[in-house]
Design a protein that fits this description.
alpha/beta, 3 domains, nine-stranded parallel β-sheet, eight-stranded parallel β-sheet, 28 strands, 20% helix, elongated, transmembrane
Length: 463
């Protein structure tokens, strides 16, 4: 009943009859009202498609009874409420389309929910979802991490039988946004995987678990409030053909790991806070300016902004400082660092004599080993100094000996001069004439004995 002009509410009988229905396709009509919460416990629906209608209300809780559901497409309606966590118990779900509705809040579900091990297409675009993307929420999307062990010749489409005994098959048709354009997939390959959460209010960093979704063909996180660096683990998504991270608050440089995305044919990182040079020598230069514009710190081809005065950031998780007034600050910092390091090593050597002597000795040893091998001789400066000092020592010794002999002779002569008679209490030595002076003629005189040099210098004699 798709692609008609049906109007009014969805009849309750259709939901009540889902025990015997495999497909309920009401897409592209003018249906309104709410989805009746009357899905039976033995619901057999495999596809529910009410895309492009005017349906309101919330996703009914009884829809969780349809354990065989593989496709839920309720996009482009007026459906509100929180994320339908009660559908997490449907382990066979492959396609979940909630785009262009009025959903709000976080998409994080309770840990008791089993998750979606076969989920391959998620479209939550153009809603009011908010909060951070939690690791535990996305880790259950196993279908995006590993492809089923099927040979390329056995790749299948999603298809269901109309009736149990009918040989005809139904093939789903959904609309997805890939490479910036809307595509209608009439045949959904079981290996086709994509995530579109654009135009919401998600915030915080892009979770690392995204780097494990190695089978993704399309990833659209645009028009949100994601912060932090553009993650390098995006380079793990080797099958990625479309990547849109535009209109966020991502910072830092474009990681070099993106060169690993050989199949990437659409890229948009515009309107962020990226800085530095776009990696060169890769297919990233084949994209247009529009893919990188409105990033004030980004430079290099294909942009017309040159990187002469813009510091090139590395692939670190934080943005780097840019140069100011044309100065290359990184090289300045490196030079200062080397200077400080050299000073820290040299100053102690200059002040520490033991260390200086140790360095000199080791240098001498090295030169004594190396120079003879090239035909040269080396003598330590200390050896030359010793030889130069040997002769002055000998000269000094001889001179000292001569001086001592002269002093002995002078002392002897002086002593001989004062040998003779002297008078007790009556004579004294005149310091000027160095002669005896008699003051009392009646004094008693005696023959003088030999005087040592020390006593001969006395100014007077005592008895």
């Amino acid at each position: 009943m798709s692609d008609n002009y049906l109007s009014g509410p969805i009849p309750k009988c259709l939901t009540q009859m889902s025990a015997s229905l495999g497909v309920l396709n009401l897409r592209q009509n003018n249906l309104s009202g709410i989805i009746s919460d009357t899905f039976p416990k033995n619901c057999s629906l495999q596809t529910l498609d009410i895309n492009q209608n005017q349906v309101e209300g919330e996703v009914p809780q009884s829809l969780g009874n349809c354990k065989r559901l593989e496709v839920v497409d309720i996009g482009n309606n007026q459906i509100s409420g929180s994320f339908p966590c009660h559908l997490k118990n449907i382990s066979k779900l492959r396609v979940l389309v909630l785009r262009s509705n009025k959903f709000n809040g976080s998409i994080h579900c309770h840990k008791n929910n089993t998750g979606w091990p076969t989920l391959q297409i998620v479209d939550l675009a153009s809603n009011n979802f908010s909060g951070k993307l939690h690791q535990t929420c996305l880790e259950t999307w196993k279908g995006m991490q590993v492809v089923e062990n099927e040979a390329p010749s056995k790749v299948k489409h999603l298809q269901f039988q109309f009736l149990q005994f009918n040989p005809n098959h139904y093939q789903d048709e959904i609309t997805v946004t890939i490479k910036g354009l809307e595509w209608e997939l009439v045949k959904i390959l079981t290996v086709f995987t994509t995530i579109d959460i654009s135009c919401n209010n998600f915030e915080g960093p892009i979770p690392e678990v995204i780097g494990t979704f190695k089978e993704l063909y399309g990833l659209n996180f645009s028009h949100n409030a994601f912060t932090g660096p553009m993650p390098s683990f995006l380079g793990n998504l080797r099958q990625l053909e479309s990547l849109d991270l535009s209109s966020n608050y991502l910072s830092g440089g474009i990681p070099l790991q993106l060169v690993n995305l050989n199949f990437l044919s659409f890229l948009n990182v515009s309107k962020n806070k990226l800085v530095g040079q776009i990696p060169t020598g890769t297919q990233l230069q084949t994209f247009s300016n529009a893919s990188f514009e409105n990033n004030p710190g980004l430079c290099g081809p294909p942009l017309t902004v040159k990187c002469a005065n813009v510091f090139r950031p590395t692939t670190h998780t934080e943005p780097e400082l840019q140069s100011v007034d044309g100065l290359d600050w990184p090289f300045i910092f490196i030079g200062v660092g080397f200077g400080v390091g050299a000073a820290a090593f040299a100053v102690p050597l200059l002040l520490w004599k033991t260390a200086s002597k140790w360095v000199d000795d080791n240098v001498d040893k090295i030169l004594e080993i190396i120079l003879p091998k090239v035909g040269l001789t080396y003598r330590r400066p200390s050896d030359l100094k010793v030889e130069a000092d040997e002769n002055p020592e000998e000269d000094k010794t001889e001179t000292d000996d001569d001086d001592e002999e002269d002093e002995d002779e002078e002392s002897k002569e002086t002593t001989e001069e004062f040998r003779g008679r002297y008078c007790v209490f009556c004579s004294k030595l005149d310091n000027k004439t160095m002669k005896k002076v008699i003051h009392d003629l009646c004094c008693t005189c005696y023959d003088s004995t030999y005087l040592s040099p020390s006593t001969s210098t006395s100014s007077s004699f005592s008895p």
